[in-house]
Amino acid sequence: MTARGLEVSDVVVEYEAAGRWLPAVAGVSFDVVPGEVLGLLGPSGCGKSTLLRAIAGLERLVRGAVSWDGADLAPVPVHRRGFGLMFQDGQLFPHRDVAGNVAFGLQMAGLGPAERAPRVHELLAMVGLEGFERRQVETLSGGERQRVALARSLAPTPRLLLLDEPLSALDRALREQLAEDLARVLHETRTTAVFVTHDQDEAFAVADRIGVMFSGKLVQVGTAAELRAEGIDRSVRAFLGN
Amino acid sequence: MTARRWVGWGLVAAVPLAFLGLFFVLPTGTLIARGFSTGGSLDLSGFGEVFSRPRTWRIVGLTFLQATLGTVFAVGLGIPGAYVLYRRRFRGQWLARALVTVPFVLPTVVVGVAFRSLLAEGGPLGALHLDGTLAAIVAALVFFNYSVVVRTVGGFWAHLDPRAEQAARVLGAPPWRAFLSVTLPALVPAITAAASIVFLFCATAFGIVLILGGIRFGTIETEIWIQTTQFLNLRAASVLSVVQLVVVGAVLGVSGAARRRRERALHLTAVDAARERLGRADWAPAVVTGLVGAVLIALPMLSLVLRSLQTSHGWSLQNYANLATTGGRGVLTGTVWAALGNSVRTAFVATAIAVVVGALVALVVSRRPHSRSGRRAIETLDAVFMLPLGVSAVTVGFGFLIALHRPLGLDIDLRTWWGLVPVAQAVVAVPLVVRSLLPVLRAIDPRLRQAAAMLGASPWRVFQAVDLPMVRRALGLAIGFAFAVSLGEFGATSFLVRPDRPTLPIVIYRLIGRPGAENLGMALAASVVLAALTAAVMMLAERWRPASAMGEL
Question: A12 pairs with which residues across the strands?
């Protein structure tokens, strides 16, 4: 059987507000083939982060299915999906040092200390933080934290990496620099990824294909060239400001 | 949530549920049944009998009067205190905060003896003739509860974003106006929460009122004790316990609603505001807080220590030397040091039980499940586990006494079991343990747990990697609280203690109840010892307190 990667079909996720259940994701379908980076672009509140969390198994699906290589993931709990997730604010473990954070996933996979150390070193080098192993996470800058978070997510070589606005909490110059680094690292490691952002330039810089989301629905999917040729859907373009 | 996880959490919840079922619900249930029935049939005549006595109405009225006055003064003085100690900074602030905290963990018996030593004839304030008055009781209640207000309101205030008040100032509001129209409304949930807890503590005050109230003043609590031990009227005591349960339930309802509002509000303002130096403009709250600290808090403690060092012959350590005796005319069955040994041994057992049960409760209650039924189950558990916080120690002790003779129809009598006293003390301490652990657990960003799960950690590994290291830091405080509560516990213990193995608070109460300067001197010295031990335990515990934790008490 050929590797089919991620298939999301007709997914609906609801959230509760003031006692009523409202759809956050209203029937979304798309595929991501192995090695591809899909960007999910849309204004805040459009449901793109909720969709990402649903793929991770952190949100309950009201309808639809998420599958990997043809196998439905509904019965698979979060920690057995083999996916990685990078949060907007890193969510580093405050009581572990940098190496402890990066090694966590390896530890969970059952690797011994001797096997973990070289892998941690390799990943820190890849994100440009060589020699940071013993640093406490509180002493890191925002950009350094996100680099550690990226290294931590990549360490156990997830079959799919989910990135939830990983650069949004950083200032502009840093964001552009890190977007380039992120694109490089994802392609070097040939990681399959879904990258959520509200920033067009970031999406174009990192993703191979881009899905545009608005009000819980996937409005358009295409490569950067296709989207440039067709133009982004008008309602979304109005929001994005061009 | 999958079926396996439900089973797992069910098991974690089962231990505390069984503990509270056996040692809280069963005794209280038996007590209520006793109040409503005779010989198995419904009989409300007990209520008619108790409520037809003017004495009952006088006691109920006094309970409300004392609790209301105590709450009004504690809140009125506590708000400036919270401002000075948590919203401003000055040299020696940690010391001031520690001084303010000490009274809360002081055993009630010690507080009673300290105020007696201050106000009785021959004491530093003896000329005011306040001994045995309502004013003395209220002052002692405020002494005891001031720190609850300061810490609850202060902890919240310290995290309040100051920019809203600054915006009001820029718009032309003078400081007092900005305080009244912007800051005070934001503080209301914290103030309500503190006030309802203080009201509860005042309404269920036992040791203080028993010692300071004499025969003229009492609360429902002391009345239950008097009806049980002096008039042997268990029926009347049961009826009064039911009344007490109703009062406590109502106050807890208000307190719970206020707490939920506050936790909602917290999400909006979880910024640790930079604190300014205490300045000239702060003179009014600074003076109020200074006076409270000096007169209300430091003076009674100082007076207790000084008078413990005096005998009829002048300054000496004779009172402390007498702690190795059984008192004048053999008042006690053992020496005071032996009682201290009993207290410490009991406290170790009680602390172990309270911390295990309380930690499990906190773990379960801190979960935020996705499903609505799961959330409702958690809310119910939260309320159930908080009940003992309000239900008075006297009710627990009295309930044990009547329920644990042939419990559940089994042919055993638990009333003479040595473990009864530590178990009862643990019941009293569990809510405090929960309240010191819960804010830490709830403050853990759920996404941190999700991050661990995404990296392949099973629920158990997530707990080990995320929850455990955080809780460990708050555990010191929880252990300290439980140990201090157990050391000073008087209400429940006074019903259950075996005459040959009294704890230190019981011994102190016996000593001040007997005539003779020698016995009074021993009571003073023993109070100093107990206070010093409790304060030492709390100071050790405070060192482990996480800097960022927002405790409630």
Answer: A26, A63
| Cβ contacts of B24 within 8 Å, gap of 6 or more | B387, B388, B391, B396, B427
Question: What is the third-level CATH fold of B7-32+67-307+317-543?
Answer: MetI-like fold (1.10.3720)
| Range name among A195-209, B271-285, B522-536 with the lowest pLDDT average | B271-285
C-beta atoms of A77 and B457 within 8 A: no
Q: Which pair of structure tokens corresponds to residue A48?
A: 């793109």
Please spell the DSSP secondary structure of B190-230, one letter per residue.
HHHHHHHHHHHHHHT--HHHHHHSTTT---HHHHHHHHHHT
What's the average model confidence in pLDDT over B116-135? 82
Task: Give the CA-trace dihedral at B144, B150, B155, B159, to 10 degrees.
Answer: 170
pLDDT the model gives residue A43: 86
Nearest CB among B445, B447, B458 relative to A79 is that of B458
Interatomic CA distance for residues A130 and B193, integer angstroms = 50
Rounded to whole angstroms, how far apart are CA atoms A124 and B273? 34
Other Cβ atoms less than 10 A from the Cβ of B258: the count is: 20
SS3 for B367? coil
pTM across the whole model: 0.77
Mean pLDDT of A130-148: 90
In the DSSP assignment, the letter for residue B295 is I
Full DSSP string of B298-350: IHHHHHHHHHHTEETTEE-SHHHHGGGS--GGG-SSS-HHHHHHHHHHHHHHH
Which has the closest alpha carbon to B297: B130, B487, B102? B102
Distance CA B84, CA B149 (A): 13
| The predicted structure's pLDDT at residue B1 | 46
Which residues of B touch chain A, with CB atoms under 8 Å apart? Answer: 2, 370-372, 445, 447-448, 450-459, 461-462, 465-466, 469-470
